[in-house]
Design a protein that fits this description.
- By secondary structure, the chain is of the alpha/beta class.
- The chain contains 3 helices and 7 strands.
- Strands 1, 2, 3, 4, 5, 6 and 7 form a 7-stranded mixed β-sheet that branches.
- A hairpin with a 5-residue loop joins β2 and β3.
């Protein structure tokens, strides 16, 4: 889970592994179940957001089978493309390097279809976004085991006061 154990840019970590000694809990994104050394959480798609205007739409805005150009400049672009497929849309995948710099020219594809990207990528594209560019908003869903642990920590720190 630590890759090569090095921090960015030489590795995948944002903090050194020694930092784990100072944390109360570790959550693993995309882990299939709670792990012995931590807890799992997933990302659940919640809305489509227009990159240019910020307009939010329900996920039903794109009908089942909708073809889209799917752009991902993240560490695991295939996870994003699988999420788009799971929504019953037909992504034409355009993977980019993690932390890629985008331009309108680099994101103009044929045929003309809606363009769908991650929120992380959308932040870098707002200044030049086209009308039909969207990002997939997601919400973190912690596992039930983590929620129970967290509730117990809150109860320990902030016990209910009765009058």
């Amino acid at each position: 889970g630590l890759g090569n154990g090095r921090c960015l840019p030489a590795g995948p970590l944002r903090e050194p592994p020694e930092r784990l000694a100072d944390v109360d809990a570790v959550l693993f994104n995309g882990a299939p179940a709670d792990r012995a050394e931590g807890y799992a959480f997933g990302l659940r798609p919640s809305a489509l957001v227009n990159v240019r205007t910020g307009e939010r739409r329900n996920l039903t805005y794109f009908p089942p089978g909708q073809a889209v150009h799917a752009v991902a400049g993240i560490g695991n672009p295939q996870r994003f493309f699988k999420t788009v497929q799971a929504l019953d849309w037909q992504p034409i995948a355009h993977p980019f390097a993690d932390h890629a710099r985008f331009s309108r020219e680099a994101l103009t594809f044929s045929p003309a279809l809606p363009l769908l990207m991650t929120e992380k990528d959308a932040v870098k594209c707002r200044a030049f976004a086209a009308d039909d560019w969207w990002y997939l908003a997601v919400e973190a869903e912690p596992s039930p085991a983590f929620v129970a642990w967290f509730d117990a920590q809150l109860e320990r720190l902030l016990p209910h006061r009765r009058a």
